[in-house]
Amino acid sequence: MPPTKAWETVELALPPIEESQASKAIKAFLLNANKNIDMTMSDSTDDLPSGCPEWVFEISDSNSSSNDDDEQQDSIELLRRGVAHELAKGEIADLESPSTEDDQGLSIERESTQRHELNLYQNFRAVLNDLCYRPNNVEGWVKLSECIGFKAEDICDRIVRIQDPYESSEFCLTDKSKREQPAMITLDQLKQAQGEEFQVSQTNWKPFIGNDLLIYMKYSWSNLSSLEAFAKELGSSISSVDSTMDEGSNTEEGQDNSDYLCWKEIQSKFEEGKYVEWANSWAGMYITALRTMRLKALLVARYLAKKNKRDSRASMHPSEVCEDVGTALYSEIMASTVYGYPIHPMLGFEKRRIAERCNFYFQEAVELSTSTDYTQKCQTVSHELHFMIGKCYEKIASTLKEEKYPLVTSQEGDQSSRLYEKTMHDAIVHYSKASTEAQAAEKASGGGPDKSCLGGSSHGAIEYLYRLHASRFKVLLSSITRAREECELAELEAFRITSVKWFDESNESSSSSLGIRGKTWDVFADCVDGKFLS
Question: For a Cys staple, 319 with which of 92, 191, 368, 523, CB 3.0–4.6 Å?
């Protein structure tokens, strides 16, 4: 029997009970639909996420639910706690699990997705019920995030992307590749312009609507009837506000009215027969709402894991949780798309802010992995973390290309170099470190892929090496496309970045006697060697 149905059966068999204050507080935090708190873009790296009730983690398990001393009530409460804990142990539903129910004539793929969404909700309910009794369970919060995250990615994979995340122009040149004008603004001016552009993009955009995020987990997006029911319930929850608005309405009511207008705009697409557009509009909100809940759960897990110093009962190392947080955030910039409504391309300001946060958590994972403050075994793999740190730096660098070049050519250690150069230098360093460590691990494991890897790159050292030299190659091509006035400075900068690491050291030996074009050619040949001989 699925976990939620089993729990509902137990609930029907037992006398009703008032929900505990701790349970209410946990659900209020997780399901809060406050759109003024953007956890993805926040600069805060505090251990406890905003709005999370710290007091629920200070009470003992025995006091977290019922204050009734009656013996019968205590026995019933113990039964509830035991059932909740056992149901929460169940495996998270697999997308490819076989169907035992009528598929209602749906395609195999859509039926599988719908079933997976329903099963994930059942898993979610079971784990959340257990956490309301055992809020200090780190693994429980991580598992809750997985239930939510898998549903978000199911939906994300099934809507049409608004842009290709892989820019072919980064790997090839055409007659239109050359820039006509050089970069003319300072770093501060660039950041200011990007910030203003971001603020404009937020006008009339909503991450989600409604007052309770549970509805986005409760209803399946992949089923038309379910999505219609979702829209109807969501509209009912906010439509009453529209009829009571007056001049004295407060900010929260104004927000609800704005939500209702957005709801009517999306629903009009259904009425006009634009069913795909209607479904995709709701998909954007589903993804953002689910990712918001996922991040909340992971940040709670990080807070609890970091508290478990010298705790022999703790089984999950905080380094592992930090890696999970970084991975979850990185998934939000992979397609360079902002979900919510309307879905639109991600701008440089937002991409950099999220990538910087990802980088923070991956760096923290590296630091914690060698900490002596924790007794449990750390399962994080160093080269996977360095690979992801390199990817974060490269994402950050991609938003900084429009800074103008310094008038004086920078030498090694000179602070006049562009931030782009410094950031790409860090990316190359970490890619190189990941590649070196992965090759050593594969050699130690007998020459094949490192068996200690539990996630991350599926191709191990080969993928790291390819990424390293592909990134060097992209830097070279980017420099060649610069305007004529800045081309020499761009090529000198590119050489400083790409010469940090060579695939074949013999290619470096001839570079000192050549001009910048000769040096660029040597690096180009070395990149090709690295990509095709690895």
Answer: 368
